[in-house]
Amino acid sequence: MPTKTLLLGSSLSLMGSSAFAADAVLEEVTPVFSWTGGYIGLQAGYARSDGNIRQRNGRGFIETDPDGFLGGVYAGYNYQMPSNIVIGVELDVEYANVDGSGQIFAAPGLPFPGGIGTEELNWSGAARLRLGYAVDRFLPYIAGGVAYGGIDTSSNTTVSGSSEIHPQDGR
Q1: Which of 1, 57, 83, 171 is surrounded by the fewest CB atoms within 10 Å?
Q2: Is 0.85 surpassed by the pTM of this model?
């Protein structure tokens, strides 16, 4: 008989602890994604352009087609406000080996005899500000800033006038 009492006591003990475990409330907390924080990275690429260098006086130009590889680093920081608006800043700088050479023209269709000009992008970079609205892991944004770079031009001849480079509009 003592065996049955011991068995019954163990059964009641297990039932009590099960009932206690059923009363425990576990809350699952889903982590909320935030765009706040810094980042750093590497980038590499290939550049190609239809370059045209015109004389300021309009009397001559060089047609070049520079191309080559570039690579560099970028870094930035974003801050997400409680209203889900995200503001940020980003900087980048790249080493570039982008160059090209071409015929010097005294006027459209009139090549300068033996005249060859070169154009070379040695480095470039940009600084940008960002304004966006976070929708969980999706961040539509607008950005604006300034781009800069080191460009060298040269020629094997002297054409009167000074050169002016217009990379943004291809002139």
Answers
A1: 1
A2: no
Total count of domains within the chain: 1
SS (H, E, C) the chain: CHHHHHHHHHHHHHHHHHHHHHHCCCCCCCCCCCCCEEEEEEEEEEEECCEEEEECCCCCEEEECCEEEEEEEEEEEEEECCCCEEEEEEEEEEEEEEEEEEEEEEECCEEEEEEEEEEEEEEEEEEEEEEEECECCECCEEEEEEEEEEEEEEECCCCCCCEEECCCCCC
Q: Is 29 inside a domain boundary?
A: no
Q: Average pLDDT, stretch 117-131?
A: 94
81-90: per-residue pLDDT in tens? 999 999 999 9
- Evaluate whether residue 21 is within a structural domain: no
Higher pLDDT, 3 or 101: 101
- What is the span of the domain harbouring residue 156? 34-165
Within a domain: residue 15? no
